[in-house]
Amino acid sequence: IDRLVQTNTTVTSCSWDAERCRWSVETASGAVHEADALILATGQLDQPSRPSIEGADTFAGHSFHSAEWDHDYPLSGKRVAVIGTGASAVQLVPEIALKVKRLSVFQRTGNWFLPRHNRRYNATVRAAIERIPGLQALRRKFVFEYTESLTLAIRHPNTVGRLARARSVAFMRSQLKDQQIRAKAWPDYTFGCKRILFSSHYLPALQRPNVELVTDAIARITPTGIVTATGATHELDCVIWATGFKTTDFMFPMRVSGGDGVDLHEYWSGGAHAHLGMCVPGFPNMFVMYGPNTNPSGGSIIVYLEAQAAYIRQALQQLRSRAAGAIEVRAEVEAASDRALQARFAGTAWTQCDSWYRDENGRIVTNWPGYMREYLEQTSQLDTADYRFAPLPDRAPVVSA
After folding, report:
1. 373: alpha, beta or left, given left = phi > 0 and alpha = psi -120 to 50?
2. Is 361 exposed, middle or buried (0-12, 13-18, 19+ CB in 10 A)?
3. CB 3.0 to 4.6 Å from 285: which of 37, 85, 160, 278, for a disulfide?
4. Can you tell me the mean pLDDT for 284-311?
5. How do residues 233-249 score in pLDDT, each as one tens digit?
6. CA gap 226, 69 in Å, rounded
7. H helix and E strand count, the chain
8. Which of 93, 294, 99, 52 is nearest to 197 (CA)?
């Protein structure tokens, strides 16, 4: 497949030609590629986000975003700040805390944690997996159902959610022996409203003698470090931005123009939405992977991606078998599915705080409101009645891109 991949290329615009039933894809270099179908697989977590903090550009030390890690910069013996305490920070803080001279972790809100058992398999376990029929399938089934139980807890915060929260509380108390750090790190929102984090190493790392958890707001950044709202100054050699991604931007700032020149950014001005997270009315032969409302809360995005790939393949097969030029989801179908999807968030933990799941209007545009098994069921078979088909114009075919 590497022969089909064009690397180091930025796509600036994609436009649909209704007469020819083709997409034109333009790159930053000015090259134009044509395709019968367009799959936007940029996802939700691809564009690093940095908050606007006064003086950030004046810092004289080294800095980088966690998604753009500078492997050439040695952290050993340095005074380092990590801004952010989400999923990115949870992975990197325990590792760099072992190397740096001093680590200041700047937290806006705490997180709910559950243990992450990531042990090496011994020879006996490996042999059992290899030789006992069905054992690995059973283990995978257990993991699937376990992650589905997290969605169950989020969907029912006053019942199952309370039990899951109790487990998280017990785990976090067992890890946070230091009462002062416990008070700082403790979340103040409903379990499951924000992303639940899995780590058995992050909370203990906060209690290392060379680590400080800072919960005061950052007022500004100076050439030598960070100044908080209380006036405290943290002298630093390096700042690591563990501030996540522009989760609701999807493929933007890429310009995508559909039928009649409709701009996707304008079409989504009230919040991103697509039928099954993949198909947008007015944009024939275009499919989005890891699109609106397909982020898992407890499971694996790979489950969704595999389902989407299979669904898109069905759509392309329909084009071929019908000798059609275009397939487009019906507007009324997409509108109905979006209303039903958004209605499922009512009463769930997702609605009980602010999070990166929401856009600037407060609409939850990232997460799937149900279970993985439901998404698999709904995408297992493409219903041709949900789509319009356009005849194939008289032209030479090109491969999908």
Report:
1. alpha
2. exposed
3. 37
4. 96
5. 999 999 999 999 999 99
6. 20
7. 10, 18
8. 93
What would the mean pLDDT of 381-390 be, rounded to a whole number?
Answer: 98
Contact 155, 313 (CB under 8 A): no
Burial class (CB in 10 A: 0-12, 13-18, 19+), 242: buried
Helix (H, G, I), strand (E, B) or coil at 372: helix
Edge to edge, the sheet with strand 22-27 lists 32-35, 22-27, 11-17, 255-257
pLDDT, tens digit, 9 for 90 and up, residues 115-144: 998 889 999 999 999 999 999 999 999 999
What pLDDT score was predicted for residue 393?
A: 86
CA–CA distances in Å: residue 92 to residues 48, 87, 187, 337:
16, 9, 20, 39
Residues 12 and 239: their CA atoms lie apart, in Å, by 31
Neighbours of 6 (CB within 10 A): 10
Residue of 296, 300, 312 lying closest to 350 (CA atoms): 296
Beta bridge partners of 103: 80, 211
Q: 396 pLDDT exceeds 70?
A: no
CA atoms of 139 and 134, how far apart (whole Å):
9
Residue 23 is encoded by which pair of tokens?
């997409």
CA atoms within 13 A on the CB side of 103: 28
End-to-end Cα spacing for the chain? 13
> Each residue of 264-274: pLDDT tens digit?
999 999 999 99
